[in-house]
Amino acid sequence: MEFNYTILILLLPMLSFLVLGLAGMRMKHKVAGAIGTTVLGIVAVLSYLTAYLYFGNGRSADGTFAPQTPWNFEWLPFTTNLHIDMGILLDPISVMMLIVISTVSLMVHIYSFGYMKGEVGFQRYYAFLSLFSFSMLGLVVATNIFQMYVFWELVGVSSYLLIGFYYTKPEAIAASKKAFIVTRFADLGFLIGILIYGYYAGTFTFTPETKMLVAAGGMIPWALGLMFVGGAGKSAMFPLHIWLPDAMEGPTPVSALIHAATMVVAGVYLVARMFPLFIVYAPDVLHWIAYLGVLTAFYAAAVACVQTDIKRVLAFSTISQIAFMVVALGVCIGADTHEGLGYMAGMFHLFTHAMFKALLFLGAGAIIHAVHSNEMSAMGGLRKYMPITHITFLIACLAIAGIPPFSGFFSKDEILAACFQFSPVVGWMMSIIAGMTAFYMFRLYYGIFWGKENKELHAHHTPHEAPVSMSFPLIFLAAVTCVAGFIPFGNFVSSNGQSYDIHLNAQVAITSVCIAIVAIVLATIMYLKEQQPIADRLAATFKTLHQAAYRRFYMDEIWMFVTKKIIFRCISTPLAWWDRHVIDQFFNFTAWSAQASADEVRGMQSGRIQSYCIWFLVGALVFTLMLLLI
Amino acid sequence: MNILSLFVLIPLLMLLGLWLSRNLNQVRGVMVAGSSLLLLTAIYLTVDYLGIRHAEAAAGVTDAPEMLFTASYMWYAPLHICYSIGVDGISVAMLLLSAIIVFTGTFASWKLKPLTKEYFLWFTLLSLGVFGFFISTDLFTMFMFYEVALIPMYLLIGVWGSGRKEYAAMKLTLMLMGASAFLLIGILGIYYGSGAQTMNVLEIAKLHIPMDMQRIFFPLTFLGFGVLGALFPFHTWSPDGHASAPTAVSMLHAGVLMKLGGYGCFRVAMYLMPEAAQELGWIFLILTTISVVYGAFSAVVQTDLKYINAYSSVSHCGLVLFALLMMTYTSSTGAILQMLSHGLMTALFFALIGMIYGRTHTRDIRQMSGLMKIMPFLSVGYVIAGLANLGLPGLSGFVAEMTIFVGSFQNADTFHRVCTIIACTSIVITAVYILRVVGKILYGKCTDPHHMHLTDATWDERLAVICLIVAVAGMGLAPFWISDMINDSVTPIINNLISASNL
Predict the structure, then answer these.
(1) Percent of chain A scored above 70 by pLDDT?
(2) pTM of the model as a whole
(3) What is the ipTM of this complex?
């Protein structure tokens, strides 16, 4: 078989994880890093080769790229129809994801050489990166929904381990725990969704028999909706987004890889994977997903406008951008290339966003590396010190703001076109949110590179440009961001597999670019200078609102309330008390009563003749009375 | 000589060897030799069993015997009590589990003091009872071995335990003895009710016990075994018992002894009285559903490592009984897988807790922190055990839980669905209590100056931990062969239950 080698894409990172995990502590830092990076390099080459061969094979008779399954074996049998298979499925979206994951992962591996240099646990870090790459690659090539769930859990745990990489920091411990538990809670929905799907569709594969689906009737929307709950957890949809901003406690390259480019789009990928079923059997669910996406996009954009920690701004921006993809998928109204434009747009945005958001995070990492702080107050005026970081960061900002010719413009334009096609209200709302994106990104950009310089801090410790290992990934990703928009994406990925030529919707494009430019100008006026009177005045005027947004509209307080107050205080503590003091005491009481009655009876065996005589007489008397009375 | 009798013979020889040994090295020598031999026998048996089954399947044998390696010797003729032995996939799996845990338990109690010789004598007697139980097919012999396994527990906890050991030992023994009184009545009821001229389970299964007798004796038998499987509300012996028991005893107890309960419920109560199981199963299903969630929630607020694990065991063993009562092929396979998985990972947990306790002299999670830096090997082991416990794919817990949930979901009525969904929620709560402990004791900075100088695991401890991790990961990575083996063996029992529901 042509694609038999694809198994290496999974096996190599797995092997690298085992080697680094078991023997890493005895290796030198450089050796461990080299092993991890080389493996990812090979994986990246194989992924590109796969894409080249797969798309190069041409279309089959019906005009689509035929899915290939070079590997599939039964891993865990349940019943005759239901079993977990492990395998590799190649189709346009999985091949596209292979490229995204291997590219970003390779860049992060290279970047980490510089960023993590000298850290304790360097080998462990690379081991976990390998584990993550393995899991994420396994997730996207899954041949069935249960395999996806298996790898879904594995990416969850790699994320947990990497967020908690600095395990002596209390914030990192809390953040890793929160990330795992929140996504686990969402996965409960996913699991129940899979169970329902398995029972009614009679299979765990993505292509169940139509007659089973028809017979299942109303259960399929439930199954798909619950699966999306899992997706919402991983992809940080409101209100399950609360773990993502905290996850920034992990090392910054990890945030770039896991919490910006790959793992967090797993939910989007899940919806795309189940799209053929969504669009036919549960279009209403799909549209509700779109509304949830709009809400999330707006919420996250609003919060991002006032955060001061640069990684937090990027985290909320990620939430908002993922919501864009979710909205794009949700606004599809049919399976053909025109009605399903959102599908193509969402996937396209996933691709471009992965590149420029990874670039933003890696840039942020370079900045944090230089000033040793996440806070914008420690920055300002950095353009003089870090020219490469500055230019690449600017490119990414322009891309995310949707300015042509950068990649974000093309994908966002398609998303907005799809939204307008669905409903003008959604279209306008998303356009405004796109404007907010441009605003907060440029607020961030000016805050870091222009604005008021923290001279005191910089005099004490002059910021310096990042080493080559760190600037190379920045330049590479910036180059990708510049050209990715011109990829004829619709020719590879579309809702029904047919080729679709992307043509810019002039009206939408002009509107969105105008909004973006206005937003950027606004940000320039407010934040370019050292003195920022307008921004200060606005913050003072809308103090409550500003404060609420800064505190992320109190979602974390609600989370703390649920876990601490409800789960700990109101359920677990009383239950544990009940167990010790009621159920256990009941058995203690039984034992005690047995002992007490035994004590009583023992008193009768006193050995004193007198008492025996009395008992004898009493007994005789009672019997006599009974005889007489009866 | 039947290979199965080796499982009784080797412990007997070990008892003799221990009795004759004069010093610590001889005691250790006997234990290592004996437990390795048991492990090898168990592995050989598994391979042999699978080989025979495969040969049967390849030859297209349709009426393959339910049990292999069967043998029977009359023991007490007036009551038809025989020493009947035989194994199917379920017992093979359980024997393998027991052998692994006895083997690792030996190393986990390598440095145990005082009275090492006496300790190992009772320990071996306990394992004798366990092995005997799993190979027996005769009701009375089974019951006898069950009792043999219970009694040493009292002494092992009472003498070598810690904390409120007398109280815990007495409580555990009384509750389990009380349960076995129910059990004895149940067994006698089955024997007389079926009118059989034998006590052999396989023979009785072919007969029909009158329904009005089943209604009385099914609950008694199920309860008798269920108490050992930590059925709510009869689980309270478990936290105290585990907390006070020495390491290897906790391992053996949670790892194997609690499995006797589930095994007995399935093999005796449900197999022999299927009609009553169908009719009355719902009562126990509610209790087990409560067990699953209740145990998990209770574990969330415990502060003693062993209590956390004991409540977690209540939850996981509850899942075993829960899955059995779902009465589908897949769910029962899942139940047996869960027994295996829980046995391995709980043994691993208790082994690690014992090792940590041996160093820090506290099990209170509030008094420990930052152990990862101080004892990396034990800490990593603990994280792996925790991840297995919360059902991470690639480790054993996932395989078992998913089989259970998929199997339970095959019951389409609302009652079973609701129970299944409630049970599913335990996967979230499990994550809460596992990560809470990991975060508290392993991560962070070490604050107690006395803990700074502690050492990491020694070779004997490493051996025990690595063995268990390999077993947990092996089952999690390649579950197909074991799942197949068990699936074939639950078929006759479930067939019985299904035909009973169609009456």
Answers:
(1) 100
(2) 0.90
(3) 0.90
